[in-house]
Structure to design on (173 residues):
């Protein structure tokens, strides 16, 4: 039974800010896998990557997703790489109504290029490398139940659209 909502998409697509708005409107709890990982380890995401490596981060991400999947009435912002792992996609499919916030790469790049809390910007150093990562991930994001094209929508409009689609699919009454 899917009675949680998960937002998927590339870094900078608005999962956290839109997720908070959706949760507030429908009275569900909001969670963010990145924030839970940081709290659990007691370090920021870049520190976790540099001290323990990406694999360690990915393992924790899956553990946290599995824990959250046992709960109900959550809106979850997922890390941009979370749907890449098959195990995570299985958990998402079974326990979450998934929404892909589709934003075009140039727009995302403008939003994230100066961020200091995203270690992948060090691994994928050029816009071309990052864009290749974006396209490699699109098929995983597209496995979501619903896709919202968010380039020309405000965060409020995206939140409204998510709620409307969740109602249409019977996730919300
Ligand atoms: C990642 C995205 C980040 C965070 C980590 C790795 C990714 O989350 O989980 O830096 O692999 O795309 P956001 O999508 O919230 O930036």
């Amino acid at each position: 039974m899917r009675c949680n909502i998960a937002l998927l998409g590339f870094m900078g697509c608005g999962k956290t800010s839109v997720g908070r708005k959706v949760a507030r409107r429908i009275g569900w709890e909001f969670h963010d896998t990145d924030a839970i990982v940081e709290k659990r380890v007691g370090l920021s995401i870049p520190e976790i990557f540099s001290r323990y490596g990406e694999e360690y981060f990915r393992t924790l991400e899956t553990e946290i997703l599995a824990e959250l999947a046992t709960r109900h009435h959550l809106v979850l912002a997922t890390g941009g790489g979370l749907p890449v792992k098959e195990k995570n996609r299985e958990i998402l499919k079974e326990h979450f109504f998934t929404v892909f916030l589709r934003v075009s790469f140039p727009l995302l790049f403008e939003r994230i290029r100066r961020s200091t809390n995203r270690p992948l910007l060090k691994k994928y150093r050029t816009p071309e490398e990052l864009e290749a990562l974006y396209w490699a991930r699109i098929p995983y994001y597209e496995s979501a139940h619903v896709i919202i094209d968010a380039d020309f929508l405000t965060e409020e409009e995206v939140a409204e659209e998510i709620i409307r689609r969740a109602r249409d699919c019977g996730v919300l009454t």
Remarks:
- The first helix runs from residue 15 to 26.
